[in-house]
Amino acid sequence: MLKKLDYNSVQIGEVLFTVDEENNLKISGYKSMSFDVDGDLDFNAKKITMNAEDVFHIESKKHLVEKAPRIDLNPPENDEEYLSKYICEGINMNHEFVVLVNGKMETYNSFDDIPEKIDNVIKFMPAIPEGPHTEEEHKEIEQWSEKLKELMSRETNGV
Q1: Residue 11 in contact with residue 5, Cβ under 8 Å?
Q2: 99, 121 in Cβ contact below 8 A?
Q3: CA angle 60, 43, 20 (to 5 degrees)
Q4: Domain residue ranges of the chain, discontinuous segments joined by +
Q5: What is the C-alpha end-to-end distance of the chain, expressed in Å?
Q6: One pLDDT digit (tens) per residue for the chain, 159 residues
Q7: Could you give the count of Cα atoms lying within 13 Å of 95 in the half-sphere of its Cβ?
């Protein structure tokens, strides 16, 4: 049952829809929200904030979210089976960078995790997706030669 409360608020059942003077929409009173769409569902915004009290999942067959089959924003912290199954499936987790740090060999899956000072580069193996490549994938692939040069510039050769 639709009930108009005033010029900027309507209520359908327990759900209240309110538009404020700055044209912001607030929806409250619902227990869950579901979008079941056969076509595209587009969100365009300056900022999107999502919070969950329990587990929050975003799932897609493609992602750059075009690169991970599953992204969990609040994954369980101590569940090794879960972490190895889902977190490591993203393409960025398939990179393998092995460097010598303070005489000890260290392996990293993310370029950004490699320390600023290293002894030597041992292995530089970024994950390259199978072709044909999208424009975005070409841009990512093209960056790796510069990243290798950057990493080599961090080498102290054990000094």
Answers
A1: yes
A2: yes
A3: 145
A4: 1-31, 56-92, 95-153
A5: 75
A6: 778 788 788 888 888 888 888 888 888 887 777 777 777 777 666 666 666 666 555 555 444 444 444 555 555 566 666 555 544 444 344 788 999 999 999 998 889 899 999 999 999 999 887 788 888 888 888 999 999 999 999 998 766
A7: 19
